[in-house]
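[step 3/7] fold_predict: job queued, chain A
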Amino acid sequence: MTLTIDVPAERWEELANINTCMAASSFDPKKGKPLSVKSDVFQGHRYTAFGNVFGPWGVKHKPTIWAYRLVPEALYEGEMTLVYHDEVAIAEGRRARGDHAGLVVTVNGHRMVCADRVDLVSGLPGTPPLSLPEAQAWRDRVTATAFADDREVTWHAYAGHPVIRYHTGRGISSALLWSIDGRQVTEMWLDRELELDPPDSLAAVPSVPAGAQGQLGMLF
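[step 4/7] structure written:
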């Protein structure tokens, strides 16, 4: 069974950059050198990944990184290989398609092995929620600077965070607004079926330093 780990949205966005599938798809093991991968550390373990699932955040669907925990080659117990996609092993039933456990890789020149398969799943932001006035002030700045951004909006909330809902001729889309430091606001797109809360459940006073300049950031 694949282990699932919840990751705060602000950290998940960084971890999504460890996806190495493009380099792996053109990797030639005949050269005798391991695949060089991107990696990052979360909760004391180093991971690489060979796939990401993006899309709106919801109860049933959440953006996910298909990751592998990396261990030093000397500590790995089991069959190892330099071959990222081994058709012979798959045909013989020795390896499942898409299974990269035992793959020897390098991280900054150090040999490591893909061990446990892990799903790193995006959670909600772990940052202090923006207040409704802060969110509305951000929207005013966007409207003032964005070209022809005349979309009708309504305000809602989810888990204590402000949610902006855009109403257009193509339908309705909603985004949870969050910020790490008050200087950049990120839109986290939400599933249309997610049940939202009324805006009066939000904090009424700012939670970030006064005078901070909000900037538009988007998470797809």
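[step 5/7] annotate
The first helix runs from residue 9 to 15.
The first strand starts at residue 3 and ends at 7.
exit 0
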